[in-house]
Structure formats: C-alpha cells, structure tokens
Amino acid sequence: MSLMQKKQICITSIGMNERMQNTLRLFFKGPCGGRCILVEKEVAEVCIVDLDSYGGQDLYEEHRQQYPMQPCIVLSINQVEIEGVISLLKPLNHDDVLQAVERAIQQLQNIAKITAITEPEPEPEPEPEKTASVTHRAAMRLIEQEARLFVGNLPDIDTADPEQVESAEYDSSNYFQGYLQQAIAEANSGNYRVDMETPSGVITALPNSHHILVALTENQLRSLSRLPLLHDITLKQGDVGSDTRGAKKSRINVDSLLWRVALWGARGRFPVGTDLAAPIYLKHWPNMTRLTIFPYAMRIAALWVNQPYSLLDTAKMLDVPQRYVFSFYSATNALGLAAVSQRSVDRLVQPQAARQHKKHSLFGRILATLRR
Amino acid sequence: MTNHKLIFAGPVGAGKTTAIASISDVPPLLTDASASDMTRDFKASTTVAMDYGILNLGGGERLHLYGTPGQERFDFMWDILVEKGIGLILMLNNSNPDPFQDLHFFLKAFEKFIGETTVAIGVTRMDETPEPTIADYHKQLKNLEKKYPVFDVDARKREDVAALVEGLLYSLDPGLAN
User: Fold this and answer.
1) Which of A46, A306, A9 is closest to B145 using CA atoms?
2) Which of B150, B154, B174 sits opposite A354 (nearest CB)?
3) Inter-chain contact A366–B148, Cβ cutoff 8 Å?
4) pLDDT tens digits for B126-158?
C-alpha cells in the first residue's frame, strides 16, 4: 500500500466562511471516512475553492499562481471549464463531492509518481544497492506541463522595467537552498557531519560525500524549498561515524538534491545579482541522466558548453520562454557548473546563432523516435 | 529506404550490447563468441564481429546501431564501420582497472571520426564503483580541451541510453527543436 493511500490528504479551503469550513470538516470525517482533513493552505496538498464567494476568482488565481501543480476543486453556480481543474456545479450533492475528492487524490498520486524519489528507508545507512536505486529514480524527464512544478509559470520579463526584473529574481540565501549549500560546504571544509534540523525532519550533510542523508519525503522537501524560510534552520556539527539519532533516512545524490532544491526555490527565476546581459558558459555538461530534466535543458546545456551566451540571448536564440533559461541557470549555478565568461570578446561581439547542422531534420526525427 | 548509422564503441564489458538492445526496435543481432584470455575476467563471451540494432524512424527510414567489437585486435574494422556514421557513443565501464586509459584509448582511436562528428560518453557500473566520478572524467577531458557530454548510464535503461543519444544530437545541433 502506498503512502498516499495510507495517510490523510490535507485539503485547504479558499473563499469559504467558517460555516462552510465546518460542513467540509464534517464531510471529510463522515462520508470520506477520515481520509481527508481540512488544513491551512501552507501545508495543503489539494485545494477546494468557492468561486462565488467575495473575491473568489482573485483568491483562486492567487492560489494557483502560488501552487500551480496542486490539484484543485472549484465550486460555482456557473459551469466552469479550466484545464486540469475539477469543477463542481452548485448545489452540491454528496456523491459529486466525494467523486471530486477522489479525482483530486488521483491527480495527487500522479504528481507524486512524477516527483517521488524518496520515502524514508528503514536503515539510517542504507546499502549501496539502495543508494543506486534512489539516485536512479532521481533521474527523470519532465514534459512541459509537469515541468511547471519546477519551472513555475512566470511570463517573460521586459528588462527595461526594473519591477519586472525584480520579480524574476530570488535570493537563494533566504531559501532552503542557501542552508543546504552552507551545510554541504561546512561539512566538506570542517570534515565533520552537519545536521540540518528542519520542521519536517533532519537532513545530514557528510564530509566529502556524494550523498546526503534525508529524513523528509519528496513533498516535504518541495514545501521546504519553494518559499523563503521564515525561521533560520539550525546547523549542528556531529561526528562522522556517530548515529544520526536513529532517524529513518534516505541517501540522495548531493547534486541531484541540490539541483531540485534550486529549481523549486527559483521556479523560473534567476539568482539575485545576475547580470542578464553577461555571457554565461558551462564548465562541463551536467550529468543529465541523474538530474530532473525539464524541457529545453539539454538544448541550453549544449549551447552554453560550446559558447557563452547571456540568459536573454539564450532565450531568444533557442526561442524558449525565459523561465526555462533562468531555471537552468539557477540549477547549474547551484552546482557550480555555470559561470560568467570573463573574456572581453564574449561581451564585445554579438553572439552568433548556433549553426544548424546539415542533418538537422534527421536528428529531429531521431529525437522524436527516442521519446515516443 | 534511407539508412543512417550510429556507432557504439568502448572496451569489453562496458555495456555496448546492452545499450543497443535498450533502444533497438528489433532484438539486436549479437555476434558474441567465447572470450579470450584477455577478456575472460570480465564476461564469459565477448563481441568479436559487431552488435547490430535498428531504430525505425518512420517512413521506411532507419537508424542502424552498430556496436564495435571490444577487443583491440579487431580495430581494423573500426574505420570501415564508422564511415558515414552520425556520431559516436562511447561506453566506459567504471569498474575497469583504469577507465581513463580506456577513455583516452578510444578517443584517440576514433579521433578522426569524432573530429568530423562528435562523441557522447556513457559511464556504466557507477553504482558498483562510484569513483572516478563524472567530474573526474570531465577533468580528463578538460586536459584535452574538450567538453563532451559524459553521463552516468545504466545501459539496461532505455531512458539513460536515449538521453546519451540526445546529448550527442544536441551537441551536434543545439538548435534542434525540443
């Protein structure tokens, strides 16, 4: 039985008064058999929205912006058709609501399948075979719709507008990413274990190790990574050989974890202080088979490995939404793979478009065949 | 019918046969024979002629997947095999005693072909032998002033082998549509 089937589903309500919320609570307790529970939006997995409430449409849009991949049930007296959203026509009846909740849970399970890489393993120090399977599962290729979970849905920005530029920046030091990078650096330089105590569990960085010990589920990691942290995470030193307080932990490849944490934090944005006109290059290719690969990532990698291009030129040259380029930069920057070219020629000379290979169309057909 | 060719090379036991089988539309034609003394420690049989698979591209167009024999005594075939190939997939076994020696040997052996096309490198058995790391391979390539794609590959997994081929194609043409 999967975790999703065993645990309660956390649902938040948007645009509902206390009376409606109490009705939902009773419904979840009774007809739903306690399978669902009403919670605050910050910890919810599914949302249920009353579109007819005062400001309901705005509240709905704001919530979708913040949680784009969260399964959503909308209630309205009018027929609503929004792609990927479960809509219920008022007046509500018991069976329809139950069915909608089931569909939301199904969507949640599909998302979990996409993102699942870790459930805590029984041993604090799993055998190498387990490590291999965990790192392997970390590799996945996302289609455009799934990628929203990692890349967000920010529209392209006009760089002449400082407000738009600011909206596309994020400061990784305010996010879990910053703490994780600090813990890894500290463990490596100090040659000791560093425990990061998060509200959901402990994450342990080991000195000069390819792996990190994680006692959190994928959903918990995502929740921790995607918003600025309100409170500091305590980093504690420990002996390398000592027990990590008996917690059930998975071993995750450091690069694979850092890559995803950076993507969740950035969600289509770039690190604050990035010069959008500066030519960026890759020191070498990322290990694409063990990372979460979103659309256009391979193309951007191939471009930056060959020649430096600015983030804006890259988006223009490959004709891709800026958020994919910004995300790729944020993730490769977190891994220390991306750098600004210091060669003056890269700034002075207008970058050339990548030359189309004479077998361009054949390569396209091979790609299509490999992905079918 | 239009035919194209993709070459898989690498030392004995690097996973060329398995990689071809992973993406081939037809069961690969294997031409293995009993291993010689040189290769017996790695696997009971080895490929003495070549592996062969097919990727059907539609409309009768095919990509032929050729695996080179792993043993050096067959290297006279390599020049013939790579003719008109679109690129090279180099498979390396991380648990070999000196995988860097293998890396340099094959890059040198296929230097002309790689110069005309390019190469993507798949490193197998990293779960058993995590070191050298992928970053270590890039250090070796950096000494040669090369930035080829190097991926950790499980040759049994179609998505891994497909990603490696994608890496090769995008290296040749980053302008390919997604």
Assistant:
1) A306
2) B174
3) no
4) 989 999 999 999 999 999 999 999 999 999 999
What's the CA gap between B51 and B91, in Å, rounded?
A: 14
pLDDT value of residue A263: 96
A-B Cβ pairs (cutoff 8 Å, strict): 124
B149 touching A (Cβ < 8 Å)? yes
Task: Closest CB to B178: pick one of A131, A210, A296.
Answer: A296
ipTM: 0.88
B141 interaction partners in chain A (CB closer than 8 Å): 284
User: Do residue B134 and residue A287 have CB atoms under 8 angstroms apart?
Assistant: yes
Which part of chain A has CATH 3.40.50.2300?
3-115
- Domains annotated on chain B, with CATH: 3-172 (3.40.50.300)
Question: CB within 8 A of A263, min separation 6: which ones?
Answer: A150, A151, A292, A294, A327, A330, A331
* Residue B46 binned pLDDT confidence (cut-offs 50, 70, 90): low
Tell me the C-alpha distance between A105 and A33, whole Å: 14
Reading the block at residue A232, the tokens are: 């500091």
Q: What is the pTM of this model?
A: 0.72
CATH C-level class of A3-115: alpha beta
Of B56, B135, B173, the CB nearest to A360: B173
Per-residue pLDDT of A37-78, as tens digits, reads 888 787 788 899 988 888 888 888 888 777 777 888 988 888
